[in-house]
UniProtKB/TrEMBL annotation:
GO terms for biological process: dTDP biosynthetic process; dTTP biosynthetic process; dUDP biosynthetic process. Keywords: ATP-binding, Kinase, Nucleotide biosynthesis, Nucleotide-binding, Transferase. It holds the Pfam family Thymidylate_kin. Belongs to the thymidylate kinase family. It comes from Polynucleobacter brandtiae. This is Thymidylate kinase. GO terms for molecular function: ATP binding; dTMP kinase activity.
Amino acid sequence: MMSNPLPGFFISFEGIDGAGKSTHIESFSKLIKSRYPQYEVVLTREPGGTVLGEQLRSLLLDAPMHLETEALLMFAARREHIAQVIEPALLAGKIVISDRFTDASFAYQGGGRGLSIDKLNALEQWVQTRADGGLLQPNLTFLFDLPGSIAQARRSKVRLPDKFEKMDLVFFEKVRQEYLRRAKADPLRFHLIDATQTPEVIWSGLQQLEIAL
Ligand SMILES: Nc1ncnc2c1ncn2[C@@H]1O[C@H](COP(=O)(O)OP(=O)(O)OP(=O)(O)O)[C@@H](O)[C@H]1O
Ligand SMILES: Cc1cn([C@H]2C[C@H](O)[C@@H](COP(=O)(O)O)O2)c(=O)[nH]c1=O
């Protein structure tokens, strides 16, 4: 496999709540399995992906807390996730597909809530520095981009809102803009998906994509 110095391949799905990641991630993982039967695929999520991470997820999605506590817990869950799931899988040459990773911290805690970029950069360096000194990052990130108002309408049809989903449209517009800023800054890693399209059109686009492992 390619550019990541670890032998595996790391893909993340990102976007504001309700943009449509979960609708596609499982089928995408099956598609990758059928296309690359020689590689094992690990489907995971953040916050979560480990026993401790899932416990932290329950707290993070429900309990009110200081913004810095929220950021620290996101990165604590991520540290555990990397140590127990992501790094061992990548070292073993597997394909890891994660529903969210660190871009979500920059978008939600940074863009949305206003935590300083310096603090987020410091946490990222701390938690994601690999043994060889490089930074663990996804090789490929799908960004499902959608205006907050459409995402909110889609969400409200199907579920009760968690702590983040209760935030207003101004918050989600800031989150969205930070995602877009990051995508623009790293066009080789990000693949932007216009999530206003129908699920069928989005799925067909995903199927047609050439992924160079
Ligand atoms: N392209 C689409 N057009 C219309 N509705 C969609 C589309 N994609 C997903 N939906 C619907 O929108 C709702 C939210 O989708 P989904 O749960 O996949 O979003 P998500 O990005 O995973 O959200 P979250 O991050 O909050 O889990 C679901 O009811 C889903 O069926
Ligand atoms: C990883 C991560 C996540 N979040 C937020 C984004 C979502 O509102 C929830 C996760 O819910 P989902 O239905 O699984 O998408 O957590 C965050 O604020 N910061 C992060 O680093």
